[in-house]
Amino acid sequence: STILYNDQFMAREQGKVDMEDRGYQFGDGIYEALRVYNGEMFLLDLHMKRLNRSARELRLTLPYDTDHLVENLNKLIKDNEMNDGYVYFQITRGAIARKHRFPEKPISSVLTASVEATTQDEDLYPDGIKASLIDDIRWLRCDIKTLNLLGNVLANQEAFEKGSAEAILHRDGVVTEGSTCNVFIVKDGVLITHPANHFILNGITRLFVLQLAEQLGIPVEERTYTTDELLDADEAFITSTGVRVTPVVQIDEHPVGDGKPGAITSRLLDAFNHEIA
Ligand code: PDD
């Protein structure tokens, strides 16, 4: 397959990064993952807005403006003849002799991008998933989409070892988000999700689902909720670029609601699928 390395297109095997790249040494960089449906990047503007915000928060200078980057990503999709799949790209602060503080003189940041083809419905679990509650041990800037994902990786692995498809993270009993997704519950017809502050990544899918809920007239509360509220919810689901809206039907040994995907969850998933058809 063809990848993008800075401004150059090349075969995957040709893409090499410097061993002193700060992304490699410190996780000093940012990324985005987008879905391509029918050859087009989905919710592109929101992803680019978030990318620019992440860069600002880390004082990382992007190598190209958004228009140029989008042009290159579109070329990458075309070169790989991809109709449905993912685009992943990351930008690190660049390569220089290892020192924690920022380089004294500006160095060029390093951009890499690749695509992965999937079928439209490959990563979906319409019957719902089992999730495990795991301690959220991550840092306090989870709102930035950085390459530092160790807290997420460890939680995801722990959930996997417990036979679960996802980790639902909590800080002292307050549910934050999943290891790779945002988490919603439904109680008495109200959709509830953690507010977009520094404890969670403000998912693009989360934003889209909030918009769909408004269109469908489903009441929404962006507020914190506890693990007890999660276990007592009528419905629960997760959202991300990959899983769209996926029901959570079991949390550790507890069924959620009646243990089947909930009605509001299904309405939101149907509305979502309608938008990408
Ligand atoms: N993960 N929260 C976390 C911690 C995430 O890693 C993600 C996405 C989300 C959902 O964001 P979005 O709806 O914009 O995909 C929430 C991506 C898919 C990943 O790391 O591969």
Automatic annotation (TrEMBL):
Residue stretches in coiled coil: none
Gene3D superfamilies per UniProt: 3.30.470.10, D-amino Acid Aminotransferase, subunit A, domain 2
Domain of life: Bacteria
Catalytic activity: D-alanine + 2-oxoglutarate = D-glutamate + pyruvate
Record-given protein name: D-alanine aminotransferase
Needed co-factor(s): pyridoxal 5'-phosphate
Primary gene name: dat
Sequence similarity: Belongs to the class-IV pyridoxal-phosphate-dependent aminotransferase family.
EC number: 2.6.1.21
